Automatic annotation (TrEMBL):
<comment type="similarity">
    <text>Belongs to the purine/pyrimidine phosphoribosyltransferase family.</text>
</comment>
<keyword id="KW-0808">Transferase</keyword>
<feature type="domain" description="Phosphoribosyltransferase">
    <location>
        <begin position="57"/>
        <end position="176"/>
    </location>
</feature>
<dbReference type="GO" id="GO:0003999">
    <property type="term" value="F:adenine phosphoribosyltransferase activity"/>
</dbReference>
<keyword id="KW-0328">Glycosyltransferase</keyword>
<comment type="subunit">
    <text>Homodimer.</text>
</comment>
<comment type="pathway">
    <text>Purine metabolism; AMP biosynthesis via salvage pathway; AMP from adenine: step 1/1.</text>
</comment>
<dbReference type="GO" id="GO:0005737">
    <property type="term" value="C:cytoplasm"/>
</dbReference>
<dbReference type="InterPro" id="IPR050120">
    <property type="entry name" value="Adenine_PRTase"/>
</dbReference>
<protein>
    <recommendedName>
        <fullName>adenine phosphoribosyltransferase</fullName>
        <ecNumber>2.4.2.7</ecNumber>
    </recommendedName>
</protein>
<keyword id="KW-0963">Cytoplasm</keyword>
<dbReference type="InterPro" id="IPR000836">
    <property type="entry name" value="PRTase_dom"/>
</dbReference>
<dbReference type="InterPro" id="IPR029057">
    <property type="entry name" value="PRTase-like"/>
</dbReference>
<keyword id="KW-0660">Purine salvage</keyword>
<dbReference type="GO" id="GO:0006166">
    <property type="term" value="P:purine ribonucleoside salvage"/>
</dbReference>
<dbReference type="Pfam" id="PF00156">
    <property type="entry name" value="Pribosyltran"/>
</dbReference>
Amino acid sequence: MDLCHVPATREKGWYLALMAPNIKGPNYAWLDPSRLYCHPQGLQDCVADLLQPFQGDPIDMVAGIDAMGFILGAAAAAVLQKGFLAIRKAGHLCVQTLAQPYTDYSGREKVMEVRTDAISAGLRILLVDQWVETGGTMRAAIELVERLGGVVAGVAAICIEDSEGGRWIRERYKCSHCVPPRLQPRFDHHQ
């Protein structure tokens, strides 16, 4: 798809066609959203779709998860006129942090961390990432926010797969994603 082309009718998720499939193997996500982020209208519509369910909800801050969640999270924070917090993979922050181990979508053991002075008790945080596949990364971010006394105001991602972890998150938190219901089975099976 041309990075300047905008369809005449823009249904929710029209921009999903901008994503490219994985050609590098199982240690990579199955779709790359970089072209979606390069498309001005695609990115705007994606962020609008992610934020629509949270209109009127009290949100104090947006947190994006390392690394692609930084892009969507910062864009969402700008639209909401809220601050942005980066939840990082361990070893990148030079300040006092709280760490949380997790297993990512490829089965690798990792550690996520957040600075301890950014979240105060009762602060309502919208968590944003590009994708929730197994839910391990998002669940680690949720645990970090809650351990610091913050409240998860919601979870937003381009796709939240119908996995055990995805269901755990949906059952406990208000969620938003961009995949229309008719396409969800294809995304769940990586087709």
